[in-house]
Amino acid sequence: MAEKPYSITATARTPALIIYLLDTSGSMSESCGGRSRLDVVADNLRRVAIKMVQRSTKGARVAPRYRIAMYAYSSSVQDVFGGVKTIEEVAQVGVPQLVPLETTDTAAAFLAAERLLLAEAPNLQNCPAPLICHLTDGEYNGADPQPIVDRIRQMEFPDGHVLVENIFVTDEALNDPITNPTSWAGLSDPTQLVSAYGRKMFDMSSPIPEAYLAIMREYGYNQLTTDSRMMFPGNNPEIVELGFVMSSATPVTA
Fold first, then answer.
1. C-alpha closest to that of 105 among 148, 144, 74
2. Which of 98, 103, 138, 239 is the most exposed, having the fewest neighbouring CB atoms within 10 Å of its CB?
3. Cα 55–164–141 angle (5° rounding)?
4. What confidence tens digit (pLDDT) does each residue in 152-167 have?
5. Which domains does the chain have, with CATH numbers?
6. What are residue 73's DSSP bridge partners?
7. Residue 27 exposure: Cα atoms within 13 Å on the Cβ side
8. Tens digits of per-residue pLDDT, 66-121?
9. What is the pLDDT of residues 100-110, one digit of tens each?
């Protein structure tokens, strides 16, 4: 293990691997702040790619400090980029159009992520712990994803265990909805969640490492606490943005 968990910084030689799992089931065409949920997701993917490019730029050159994989899933799983791409390649390709389709096979999406992590493991020994950012707006159809997520979270690298983050886009997430994400303390108590599925997602979310909290404070999210989880529930664009900002908060070399 690293001297302190989640302390290895992302560099050109030790890039961070971020895996995005995006629910593109039919309900993702519903409204989120007056726009479709998929449109909000696409906009935030573009913003987070810009943040990653900014955090990877040295002079006029974009260093490959991030490596990105993306899977869109409904009744099947689509490898959006056709494998792992550097952040420069992602910036050149851009965010593809996401089309809502059919049902929600969350287990298949996490299984694809697990297979990728197993294949990439030899390349990750000196890198920041990988992070999976999963976004969904409803309960899965088919197999329970939690056993797969539990296996993934047990995968350990020198920097720490694999991190799993969940963005849960729904009108009925919390007993007390989040009105101001920048002053929100985060989610540390699963009883704040309305549904059993919300509480399951809490259980499938990693605690936020201190190194990530430090980066989030730089972005203006000053109230997140060390006992809060990497779970962001709510049905407004600001919560989606907060979740995607977290996915880019791997420490990098200055």
1. 74
2. 103
3. 130
4. 999 999 999 999 999 9
5. 16-247 (3.40.50.410)
6. 23, 77
7. 16
8. 999 999 999 889 999 999 999 989 988 888 778 777 788 999 999 999 999 999 99
9. 777 889 999 99
According to DSSP, the β-strands at 131-136 and 16-23 are: parallel
For residue 40, what is the enclosing H or E element? Answer: helix 37-56
Question: What is the spatial distance between Cα 43 and Cα 65, in angstroms, rounded to a whole number?
Answer: 22
Question: What stretch of H or E contains 19?
Answer: strand 16-23
CB distance 49 to 40 below 8 Å: no
Q: Rounded to whole angstroms, what are the CA distances from 14 to 123, 162, 175?
A: 9, 16, 41
Cβ atoms of residues 41 and 90 within 8 Å: no
Q: How far apart are CA 65 and CA 149, in angstroms?
A: 25
Structure tokens at 77: 């799983």
- Per the CB < 8 A criterion, the answer to whether 219 and 159 are in contact is no
Q: What percent of the chain has pLDDT over 70?
A: 98
Round the CA-based radius of gyration of the chain to a whole number and report it: 17
Contact (Cβ atoms closer than 8 angstroms) between residue 86 and residue 35: no
Structure tokens, 117: 């992590």
